[in-house]
Amino acid sequence: MDFVSQAWAQADGGASPDASAGLLSLIPFVLIFIVFYFLLILPQQRRQKKQRELLEAIKKGDKVITSSGIWGTVTNLDKETVTLQVADNTKIRLQRDHISSIRTLSES
């Protein structure tokens, strides 16, 4: 019985250090979140912004590459779709979001 009363006495006197230890245990989680933000979330947001700007800048006559790897020339633009000419008499219509890049002169 004496052992139990000593344990209770130690627990009551140590309330203040336990609270500070609880806050200190949160620091690694906060640091992990900060690292994830700068290594994963922020670069992804930058890529999405760059892709959105690319899609808004597309105009007729641009030579583009789709996300599936099809190369074509933009012949018609709608709000959500793009018509690409991929061969002399072949045109395809696809969603605007599926354009991954605009071809440069060196890729032509």
Walkthrough of the structure:
This protein has two helices and five strands. With 108 residues, it is an alpha+beta fold. The protein folds into two domains: 1-57; 60-108, Roll (SH3 type barrels), CATH 2.30.30. A hairpin with a 2-residue loop joins strand 3 and strand 4 (90-95).
Topology:
Elements: H1 2-13, H2 15-57, E1 63-66, E2 71-77, E3 81-87, E4 90-95, E5 99-102
Antiparallel strand pairs: 1-2, 1-5, 2-3, 3-4
Question: What are the defining features of this structure?
Answer:
alpha+beta, SH3 type barrels, five-stranded antiparallel β-sheet
CA distance, first residue to last residue: 87 Å
Class derived from helix and strand content? alpha+beta
- Main β-sheet, spatial strand arrangement: 4-3-2-1-5
- β content, as a range? 25-35%
**Largest sheet features:** 5 strands, antiparallel
Percentage of residues assigned to helices? 40-55%
Number of strands: 5
Q: What count of domains describes the coordinates?
A: 2
Please tell me the overall pLDDT: 86
Low-confidence sequence ranges: none
Alpha carbon gyration radius: 29 Å
List the helices and strands in order: HHEEEEE
Q: Given the structure, what is the number of helices?
A: 2
The dominant shape is: rod-shaped
Oligomer: single chain
